Amino acid sequence: MSLFLSQSQPLSEQINTLAFVFQFLAAILVAAGMLGVAALIGQKGRKTKEKDIPYECGKDPIGPQNPRFSVKFYMVAMLFILFDIETIFFFAWAISYQDLLSQGIGALFVILFFLFLLGVGFVYEIQKKSLDWTQRG
């Protein structure tokens, strides 16, 4: 333990260092103990072809490895990411709203213009039925 502790450190830092070392060692021992106990008393089942196939969400892996998805799936995914990024802007504006108002009314018009463009995009999505998954194509 003298490797971690030196006489030049104050007592509180020495205690913190010792606490960290003991906690690290305890974490290593607990992890190794859990793995060891699981290896010792765990059930060793027979390997069969059915048990070794990949399991994904309760669906048997039957069919092509890379199925083709509709373009609508990708459109909805991109729109989700786009609106998710726009939500980040709303949080930033909400946090700095008081500072923006202190700079003048111009910042409010910038926010309203952004909301207007967002609304135009959303109306366009609804008109093109981009969010309707029930249609084919």
Q: Quick check: average pLDDT?
A: 81
How far apart, in Å, are the first and last alpha carbons? 69 Å
Q: How many structural domains can be distinguished in the coordinates?
A: 2
Structural class: mainly alpha
Approximate helicity band: 55-70%
User: How much of the sequence is in beta strands?
Assistant: under 5%
Note the main sheet.
none
Rg measurement, Å:
29 Å
Q: Which segments are poorly predicted (pLDDT under 50) over 5 or more consecutive residues?
A: none
Q: How many DSSP E strands?
A: 0
Any idea what the shape is? flat
Number of helices: 4
**N-to-C SSE string, H for helix and E for strand:** HHHH
Keywords:
mainly alpha; flat; 2 domains; 137 residues
Task: Tell me what the structure shows.
This protein has 137 residues and is mostly helical. The protein has 2 domains: 1-67, no CATH class; 71-127. It is built from 4 helices and no strands. It has helices at residues 11-41, 71-95, 97-102, 106-128. The radius of gyration is 29 Å and the shape is flat. The termini are far apart.
What does this entry show, briefly?
The chain has helices at residues 11-41, 71-95, 97-102, 106-128. With 137 residues, the protein is mainly alpha-helical.
Which helices and strands appear, and what pairs or packs with what?
Elements: H1 11-41, H2 71-95, H3 97-102, H4 106-128
